[in-house]
Amino acid sequence: MTQQYRITLLPGDGIGPEIMAIAVTILKAVGQRLDLKFEFQEALLGGAAIDATGEPLPDATLKTCQDSDAVLLAAIGGYKWDTLPNAQRPEKGLLKLRAGLQLFANLRPATILPQLVDASSLKREIVEGTDILVVRELTGGIYFGQPRGIFESETGEKRGVNTMVYSESEIERIGRVAFEAARKRRGQLCSVDKSNVLEVSQLWRDRITALSAEYPDVELSHLYVDNAAMQLLRAPKQFDTIVTGNLFGDILSDAAAMLTGSIGMLPSASLGVAGTPGLFEPVHGSAPDIAGQDKANPLAQVLSAAMMLRYGLNEPQAADLMEQAVQKVLDAGYRTGDILSPGMKLLGCQAMGDALLEAL
Ligand code: NAD
Predict the structure, then answer these.
(1) CATH says 1-101+277-360 is which class?
(2) 106-261 belongs to which CATH class?
(3) pTM of full prediction above 0.85
(4) Would you say the CATH fold of 106-261 matches that of 1-101+277-360?
(5) Catalytic residue at 37?
(6) 131 near 112, Cβ under 8 Å?
């Protein structure tokens, strides 16, 4: 029987509509190959939504997203909206969307594609073969803990305060996402904390260790965050899946991503509780400097759609097909301007889409 999925598309601003069009074409082609039917519905977010409705996240968009099986976003923002007050900026729409979908888990792969090893700032022998997934808790920890603020003491001295707090249930739900993700990869999970200093990290380590009894097929290890940062740069190949809290994950996922050296290649996924739609988007922004010029690299968008298939819709075979198509175009020497190196063939966004289709 044909499997049917309802996908909300949020093309957004800048290069968003250009790269989204490519991802949709590839999704349709993969769907045809594997007898999957995608019902696409497009909605407004960011600057495009502000222009049409005055709101960066119209209620109708949130509702459409909530009623779908998965949400595929390109990027939002641009010069035109940069001078608006903070609450009306395109970025606010994205933050509200993440909150509205209760996305508590952020998944960011840092995979060094063999064809792009030399784009990394680290030596080839260090990064070659690196394939890491960072699972970051997104709605808790020190970014949200109370009390917070800048308080003045009786002597008039100011104190800045933030609180790092995790409950057992918050740790367990992100832990489950990470164990499940590790299961779909090479079966190794490294939990990163600072339990030698922080009580919140001691609870984190206890709960993750307890949870591992339910995942005997996943090999669990623990690292302190300072050591994890060193190891990421010293020997990134030792990592498969990493799970960590909001603050440590913010820093480590950027460090891991930059091992790859090419922002136009990086997808991400944000997941909520089981049965609710996840949000899948490239790490890069709307690149207003090259919008409408057919120069954008669509590969991060295509790889985000692949993550949607793998982690959002549980269609690993379809995800594999899309990722293999990306490998094939790179093997053939095709590059957009942002990843161009000597001897390679320069393609525009549209032509890269055609090459992907051909590769499929
Ligand atoms: P950016 O990622 O849009 O661009 C940084 C640089 O990378 C630019 O030179 C751009 O041309 C290049 N680049 C990015 N993606 C590319 C691609 N797919 N192909 C080729 N080149 C690419 O970051 P920025 O310039 O700091 O921000 C531009 C706008 O995007 C801002 O309004 C910002 O708020 C917004 N933004 C949105 C998101 C999002 O939608 N999640 C994320 C980051 C920034």
Answers:
(1) alpha beta
(2) alpha beta
(3) yes
(4) yes
(5) no
(6) yes
